[in-house]
Amino acid sequence: MLHKLWPVLATITLILSACAGSTSQPDAISSIENENSLSGKLIIYSGRSEPLIQPVMTAFQTKYPQLEVLLKSGSNSQMANTLLEEKANPQADVFITTEVFTAYALSREGIFLPYEPVGYQNLPDAYKAEDASWVGLTQRMRVIMYNTDLVSPDELPASLFALTDPKWKGQIAAAGSTNASMQAQIASMIQLVGQDQTEAWLNGLIENEVTFFGGHSDVRKAVGAGELKLGLVNHYYYYLQLAEGSNVGIIYPDQAPGEMGIISNATAAAIIKGSKNLNAARAFIDFLVSEEGQEIFAEGNYEYPLLTGVALHPDLEPIVGLNMANIELAQVVNHFEATFDLIDMANLP
Amino acid sequence: MLKTEALRSNRRRHTTSTPKIAYLAGMIALFAVIPVIYILIRALTGDPELWQRIIQTRLIKLFSNTLLLLLAVTTGTTLLGVSMAWLTERTDVPGRKIFRWLLALPLAIPPYVGAIIHLALLRPRGGLISQWLEELNIPSTFLPNPTGFWGAAFVLIIFSYPYVFLLSAAAFRSLNATYGEAARMLGRTPWQTFWQVTIPSIRPGITAGALLVSLDILAEYGTVALLRFETFSSAIFVQLAGRYDRSAASILSGVLILLALVILYGEFRIQGQAQFTQIGSQWRPAALIHLGKRRIWGFLALFFTVLVSFIIPVGLLVFWSTQGILDHQTFSGMQIGSKGLVSFIFNSVWSSGFAAILAVLFSIPIAIYVVRYPGKISRLFSRLSQVGYAIPGVVVALSLVMLVNRFLPFLYATSLVVVMAYVVRYIPQAVRSSESAMRQLSPSLEEASRLLKRNAFQTFVQVTLPLILPGLLAGSALVFLSSLKELPATLLLRPAGFETLAVRVWIWSEEGFYFQAAPAALLLVVIAIIPLFFLLRRESIFKQ
Amino acid sequence: MKLEIEQLSKRFTGNQYPAVDNITFSMQTHEILCFVGPSGCGKTTTLRLIAGLERPDQGIIRLDQRIISDMHTFVPPEKRNIGMVFQDHALFPHLSVFDNVAFGLQGLRKAEKKDRVSGLLELVGVEALAKRFPHVLSGGERQRVALARALAPEPALLLMDEPFSSLDAHLRLEVREQIRNILKASQSTVIFVTHDQEEALFMGDRLAVFNQGKLEQIGLPETIFHDSGSRFVAAFMGDSDFVRGTSVPAGFHTELGLLEQQNDYSPGTAVEIAIRADDIDFQLNQQGNGKIINRFFRGAFNFYRVELDSGAIVHVFKLHTEIYQPGERVLTYFNAGHPLKIFTL
């Protein structure tokens, strides 16, 4: 007797799917490159922490009020997974990742549509895809931050490997295994110091009862509040915490000659193959690597802009003069499987 | 002589032909059970090497963690829930009528919101309490670590005990005075009577409540993730969010589902027994126990429970919300793109509301079939449709991502997938409400209508529907409430730009923006109180 | 014939024995036929088969010469023009008394409907309750509203399934008299189901006695009572006890002595004789054939339960003045004055 209700249900379903933000309707791609004509939806998948990407999104939105900018943020690998899952049925227009390895891996899977944004030639080659399928946005370093009330300058750890020293037992904060920066760091370490030493380091962290948080915001707050003494973070989290008035300091690790150097990485962006609003996607990438976009990252987030000529935040330590680790992108990507194996073996939370 | 019809219960009869409603019920049961089957198949066909590695590295730890938490929380909720029920139902403690309401209200607070508040208050050094203590120059080192096993157990007990409270209060209420009186006449002291008569009589109610709590604990993601105590649910989320390969997530999900199915099976067995404390026509409430001077202790116990589980969390949310709304920068930060609070409310309400309507519509054929055509098949369908109790949100999300993208690509990445997840996960609540409403409806009413010249459909519309409507509404209120609070499946399945209150609360709190998260959390609680109020009013303990 | 039933059978899945086993009978217009039998005997199932609430496995049901159920036809209940009063009355709780009664009056104009409902409410004597809802009515009022509702569409046949079972004993006597008068006044054709033999004798123009899915006997109340067709009918309808006997030329030899009665059985046939409490008597006698087990005081009578030496139990009426103690030996003997019913073993 209920079968008579089915047509009604089906209708309701259709109506609701139509108004529930169905993204499957193609938006007309205008062939005229008139910036102000951008409209429809721009769907951004972001593996970066939401507050770090919000300002640039808001600026872009203000520029194109006709455009509806929609964001789905999650962990880097969650978004990468989603993109792989959606390969045959793409939903997003642009992907922003917090580290280049994911971009590299997805590019190999044919997820991205190559695009050379305006000013492409002014970006460093080290952070560009060979086929222009993705482009680096900003650079950042893995550093140790500490609470200056609790740690005196003479006892500071000078190396990442010093974090396994039992004297820091139970006093270190770090991001957990779902965090892409952490994953990338481990993959980089495998390339730099080998798998065995990396595994030993991870086990050392576990033995040292490091507190692993879901993200770096928690890490910086814990160190800022003095809940924990040391935190393993990306450099800008130190500055963000400093800006909140906490007594924190920064350590650039592994600087001595012969040591591995600072592990750095870059955020990156790419256009998804099958994007339904290509013009908007291109405009967004253009904006991200434009002077305006780069300044937002530099000013608000304390990141190192990749576009030559954009000024660093005055508080930031220039890269020149720091001992940077020599990371081979193509090689590191191949270490990702080993990275996850190590994470599982070490039972990294 | 009685053999022929002895097996037949009063009026419920088998007919030989399969009714049309059976096919509809079957389809719905299939819809509810496909995600589970899919995950189980994925798990069982997983790479044996991976299985071995997971068994070696993860399984024992996850099992012991999960079971330990389960044990602690069910024990805690049972102790707390039953004592609160006993105080409000069986003693003359002052204010017990008000306390009945207050003790049920924590159901409107999602445990992860509780966990956020718990952390904000108790974090060593960073927490509000430790800060106050520092200002007063009192060392805060004596404060317990808010995270880990004890933190998670505490938060989950505080926000799950109302299930046990409500079920055992109802059981206390329905307990006829004559049982206790009979025991006293047979020479038992009041204390012996309590343990030998009262507790055994309400045991089915308590057990049912505890088992439902267990299923909730298995499914809980937000709390354990925030308090960093790894259980199956959070480990699966980590696998899903942190790895490129879903096999490990599928395997862990398979194991988790099996564990949950065992508990669900136990719960099904208990259900039948839970009915032996029904209020009959000769029912007379048991006399209240006079606590005398101990009343004050009873009152304090009630007050302290309500303080911790409702007043403090809501008070803090109100405080933060005002701070957040007054601060211009925080307030403008509540916008995500072009979407603000209003849009989050709208998304939360329509997705939960739509899920509630669908779940109840789907539950009707099941309820009609199982109640009017009792038998092995109809009972199987009913139970299959209730399997959602045993699939945590993360697992629903995992299977729907894979299933929908393969078989219903046009639905993929729409908010309807989120709604679908709610329906799969919470249709059991609708099925139970609809079934109990149908059971209370005498079949003779429908038969009378047929004999008064209405066909089956007219009978459904004119007689059945108006009479079971209150039950259906209760079911939809329950599904609405649960969907509103749902977190992991929403996080994983939502399309870009689809922000609900729960999602915003979670993302903002993860970043530590409590002032920003507070208004959303407060709204979530306030909206949840509406269906909760409607549901509670139907409970026998709130009727005088 | 108003209603004709031929070889009707129904077995519920999962049950070994049929609930209704090959039943055949017919009934006249304006007749009140009473189905009577112990619970589970198939009387209610038969009623529901006639109503169309169950599907028969075999058999034919004909109402007013029209087949409403056979191997090929199954007229759904709403198209049978049959009314029913349910055991629990089944008044729709969401409708007022008026709307309940009007429920079956589809297609009538409003004024007509109103007249008809008022007429019916008056007929059953509850016209003042039209605006009330069922939950505020008393048992007897509900009973009458249920009857009015069933009569409203002027059904060809009215079925009543133990309609008085939910009423208190004293109310039942009062209501059943009123109801019978209403049924007769409205010239309804009625099948009335009860498990109470006394109620059956009161209500039915004819009785149909059911046992284990079979129709044991159908006939006038007097015939059923005095001339029971089977041992079961005698026991169930006639409150009979049984003593064993053997056929002899002069009658039947029993432990109560010789029953002199004409007999067509060949000598030596083992039989049972149905006896009621007024068919036998006893005297105190140490050499007697039984002893008193119990005495029940029944006002005008003493009702004695006597165990014969064979172990058989019989009941005996005595005047209220004749009081004997349990345990006393008695000599029990026939004292009927009319032929007793004999059944072969």
3D architecture notes:
The complex is a heterotrimer of chains A (349), B (544) and C (345). With 349 residues, chain A is of the alpha/beta class. Chain A has helices spanning 6-19, 50-63, 76-85, 100-108, 180-193, 195-207, 216-225, 235-243, 278-289, 291-301, 329-334, 336-346; strands at residues 40-46, 67-73, 94-97, 112-113, 135-147, 172-175, 211-213, 230-234, 248-251, 264-272, 304-305. Chain A has two domains: 39-139 and 266-305, Periplasmic binding protein-like II (D-Maltodextrin-Binding Protein, domain 2, 3-Layer(aba) Sandwich); 140-264 and 322-346, Periplasmic binding protein-like II (D-Maltodextrin-Binding Protein, domain 2). Helices cover 38% and strands 17% of the residues of chain A. In chain A, strands 1, 2, 3, 4, 5, 6, 7, 8, 9, 10 and 11 form an eleven-stranded mixed sheet that branches. In chain A, β1, α2 (50-63) and β2 form a beta-alpha-beta unit. In chain A, α2 (50-63) runs antiparallel to α10 (291-301), α5 (180-193) packs across α6 (195-207) and α5 (180-193) packs across α12 (336-346). The longest helix of chain A is centred in the N-terminal third of the chain and has 14 residues, at 6-19. Chain A is globular and about 60 Å long. In chain A, 51% of the residues are buried. Chain C is an alpha+beta fold and 345 residues long. Chain C folds into two domains: 3-233, Rossmann fold (3-Layer(aba) Sandwich); 239-344, Nucleic acid-binding proteins (OB fold (Dihydrolipoamide Acetyltransferase, E2P)), CATH 2.40.50.140. Chain C is 23% helix and 34% strand. In chain C, α3 crosses α4 (139-151) and α4 packs parallel to α5 (169-185). Chain B binds chain C through residues 1-8, 13-17, 375, 442, 444-445, 447-456, 463, 466-467, and chain C through 12-19, 38-42, 45, 51-55, 57, 76-80, 82-84, 86-88, 90, 92-94, 103-104, 106, 149-150, 152-153, 211-213.
